[in-house]
Amino acid sequence: xxxxxxxxxxxxxxxxxxxxxxxxxxxxxxxxxxxxxxxxxxxxxxxxxxxxxxxxxxxxxxxxxxxxxxxxxxxxxxxxxxxxxxxxxxxxxxxxxxxxxxxxxxxxxxxxxxxxxxxxxxxxxxxxxxxxxxxxxxxxxxxxxxxxxxxxxxxxxxxxxxxxxxxxxxxxxxxxxxxxxxxxxxxxxxxxxxxxxxxxxxxxxxxxxxxxxxxxxxxxxxxxxxxxxxxxxxxxxxxxxxxxxxxxxxxxxxxxxxxxxxxxxxxxxxxxxxxxxxxxxxxxxxxxxxxxxxxxxxxxxxxxxxxxxxxxxxxxxxxxxxxxxxxxxxxxxxxxxxxxxxxxxxxxxxxxxxxxxxxxxxxxxxxxxxxxxxxxxxxxxxxxxxxxxxxxxxxxxxxxxxxxxxx
Length: 407
Description:
Layout: E1 2-8, H1 11-23, E2 27-33, H2 45-58, E3 66-72, H3 81-97, E4 102-107, E5 114-120, H4 134-149, H5 156-163, H6 175-189, H7 195-204, E6 207-216, E7 219-229, E8 235-241, H8 251-268, H9 272-284, H10 288-297, E9 300-306, E10 312-319, E11 324-327, H11 337-344, H12 369-381, H13 388-401
């Protein structure tokens, strides 16, 4: 079983994602803990919000107080609703959320049934629940639950192939949803220390991102647009402004994520593991193709930046296991562009690079300036990258607070 944990600031976004599935008949609520009880047993977004509000109001300083967890058993595991509910309850208790309000949704929109859990990281007294080493603890809990319930153990291959982000495929249509399925989880849970690192990461999943700054009718705007890339590395379709995907993908939030990532790199020693892997691969590889293959086996991909003459002038590494992106220069002089250029410069020019079975990036391209100019007016309307539907919901909820509710 594989667990995915993400944190955010918008309770509505987490609830709306699941209730859209419920309304479409693709999901259902199978368990609740410390939630307001209703007469009909139904849990609408409003009821769920009412249950979580006292906890969120007790501490308004926590930046990302909402936690959204998905638990994904192996497709071979056949669990009924009661078993899913028991697993969710035990998982949350062991993770430290046993006394928190949380709601469990079972998703049935794909053959691999799985559950999503929404809760808050602030207790009723306003104290934040400690999340140090949370991902490590989560993995241990999953292994324990696998043993207890006889589930198929999740190995590294399953983690990578079964539940990783899927690159956008323009030929499949619904481009907006495909891009959303990439940028939303990336902006919530990945670590990148610059916008260029964020851009490099998204390119692996066939998404182009660019900043758009300027003035429109005397008003300054600072926005982000996203677009799909086709199999030729060209921008496909019309770029979409970040507000269409929610606040977490906008300029302000991405900048905050960058700062938070810098802190995570300092405190969690994220560099040490990939640094060791890269060093060993660089020392033992026969050529560039072999170097890339060795990294791929350790869930690390590399993007080399080259000029027109084929000279390497930069390298970006992506650690898919730790969800961490970093330029080679951040690791030290032993991983600079000159080192890679010297190492691989003796290879025969014109030799076709063998494509890796996974994590293969398409060539990144730039969205034409004319496209940005056409979007300038659109961005200026909502330069903060806010979700209009979400803001309207929040305003409605604030008005409801003034009225007494009887359930």
